[in-house]
């Protein structure tokens, strides 16, 4: 770990994945202290903390704020209790609203909400309702995710047994477009396929990923991308703890060198997720950073399908292209 | 051997009525082979034959049978294929015999195809010995079956034997009856050589092995001979008989049955039904008119992987060495790639060929919907034959179209008559005749057995007809058919268009009144199996320029990975790589991606 110290400027910190609120505030403070000791941290860094409704109270949030956390990401998921039940969440929409209120009172002025659409049984009207309630609470940032159904989950079993309806992809598409319209009308600006923010409130931390910039992940299952190497830690807590007592790097389960065509493809794909898009030069100029020989042709084809647009200096996904972005992305992969 | 001591006979039986078991028992009783539990059924030599319970190629076995008086008779048992697809081979086998053992299952009774073969045997004046087999089984009804034999075939009770090939009961009596009733061969040993080829196969080392029955004269090893029909010249490299393993001999004389090794490269040079005579001092007249079985059923055979085309070509050519009735020519389809349009004797023949290609040559194949050969007279007066819907002329160019018709014969318990008549009519059958096969002994609750006769287009038989016949009769009905000739037909070509592009592989020839129904089913199926794409795809069925059915596959709107953060990138990239791989396997109709499985499903649709 020490080998990275000093070499990099840390611009953001993110506590998330899993349930970080299980930590005591003292532990959080200790970690932040250690980070500041090990790394050069930019002044006024973004320090986010993921919170699940029903797991924290006002006191905890206030302590977090005092410890230096300045952004809260709240896993609200839905503001309709029956949907929360379908999702297997243990909190209610009232609890989610109350956590947001508490965070405000605790002094947080940068709060993000996670919401889910494409839930079995969720109509377009239901989704409108959740969005309206979310907007009413004025979070600075929103992440909207389409429910992904994985085999083996209780939800999928419910669908396979006919208990729950299979979500209609056309309704999900309508829901997505509704959100685009509604959030836009209410002062939220979309900056990535699934992310919206008030002006200046884009998540600085997450933009690092999409800009293919380096990041260091610490913890079970965490992922780092430094010097063109992507490393993923083991996902078993006991294995991880044992590895921590061993030499540096013992916790790494997978390591992949990202280079050549793959690197270019990843860079272009990730940049295209952002509404700002990718630089025209990078794509068309064979010497450019993201250039692959066949990109020119692929971009023309995709523009023809109405999935991409360009203003001459930047290329970006169209509204249709965002919903069909996989059709764009797989074509950008090297053969 | 004295010609008077020779008996040449075959066994006529329906599938699973016990022909192979009986052959095995006869061989065992005459001591030609010790009973071997591992090779129970020696007559069925191909794996495929054994598995499907059918006999594809006729073989001959020589049995020596000593009667109590001390005389030793030589019995030549010639195996016959039982299926109607091979009726030409059956007829030639029967010509090589003087007698036939007719085996009927005591639990089932006379089946349609058996009846057809009996009639051929009668035509050739064979002595027929009716035998009721499987009398050991609990469900057997020998009395009912006897009544059928009496009513339909006109035999008397005392002429019919009751046996169990499985236990051996009555088989000794059958041997005695064969010796007593089947006449000895009548050929003249002093006349110039004439021998009838009743079967052949290709051997990698010795070329074509021909099975023959010497009628007149004698055939010696090393002799130069010729085929009177085809004009092929060859030398008898080797000669002998089977007992049941091959045994070399110096000579085959009038009345005897055996094989010759010819060194020929393909069975096409040595066709069944031709007459062998000596090159010098040969006979003037062949034994019977020599014929070529005509392919009746056509289908395209394509490799599942385009790069296996040359393997497929090699495999078909090799199979053809052994199966002269298989015809093929190269064909290409924009979607299926390069392949062959093949002609077969019937659906079973098609199945066998496809299965052998896949099994013996490890190929994975795509087979198009089987069809018949149409004769189309154009307005210009030119007559063309059409074996692929793709070649069917435009409606405006057609003066008339003819298609092959068959006479079908269905044997069924009377309770199913109503249901079956409905099925046959649905498939364009024209009623001809009903015959009751017994009077009083019908104790079966399904009722007394009846034979129905219809005429119908062969085209109709190639669809789901047989499956329906079986299911509507709870499996009881048996079916036989016989080619009648070509008749004028009212037919149209139904095309399928995907995104405005005509797909040849989906075209079908149908009667006009069915175009709507078939078209609707096909576009519905296509809508189900073609994945949604980035644009709307119209799927249409059309006759000429007229659209008879249409479905739209709406554009796909959503294909997005909504969550993609630091830890997701590798996994998501792998998902995209998989998506890209999947796209490579798609076949293209214009710019529409269609999975191969979708093609097969639509082509299989009946």
What secondary-structure arrangement, pairings included, does this model have?
The complex is a heterodimer of chains A (about 325) and B (about 600).
Chain A: E1 9-15, H1 25-38, E2 40-51, H2 58-67, E3 71-77, H3 81-86, H4 93-105, E4 111-117, H5 124-136, E5 141-146, H6 154-160, H7 169-185, E6 189-192, E7 195-197, H8 204-210, E8 223-226, E9 229-233, H9 237-245, E10 252-257, H10 260-273, E11 278-279, H11 280-284, H12 295-304, E12 308-310, E13 314-317, H13 319-323, H14 325-332
Parallel strand pairs in A: 1-2, 2-3, 3-4, 4-5
Antiparallel strand pairs in A: 5-7, 6-7, 8-9, 9-10, 11-13, 12-13
Helix pairs in contact in A: 1-2, 5-7, 10-14
Chain B: E1 6-13, H1 19-29, H2 47-52, E2 60-66, E3 72-78, H3 87-95, E4 99-105, H4 112-123, E5 127-133, H5 142-153, E6 161-162, H6 171-181, E7 194-203, E8 207-216, E9 218-220, E10 224-227, E11 233-235, E12 238-242, E13 246-248, E14 251-253, E15 257-261, E16 275-278, E17 297-303, H7 309-322, E18 327-333, E19 337-344, H8 347-360, E20 365-367, E21 374-378, E22 383-386, E23 398-413, H9 417-426, E24 430-436, E25 449-457, H10 458-461, H11 465-472, E26 478-489, E27 492-498, E28 501-502, E29 508-510, H12 512-529, E30 537-543, E31 546-553, H13 569-584, E32 587-589, E33 592-594, H14 596-604
Parallel strand pairs in B: 1-3, 1-4, 4-5, 5-6
Antiparallel strand pairs in B: 2-3, 7-8, 7-16, 8-15, 9-14, 10-11, 10-16, 12-13, 12-15, 17-19, 17-20, 18-19, 21-22, 21-23, 23-25, 23-26, 24-25, 27-28, 27-29, 27-30, 30-31, 32-33
Helix pairs in contact in B: 9-11, 12-14
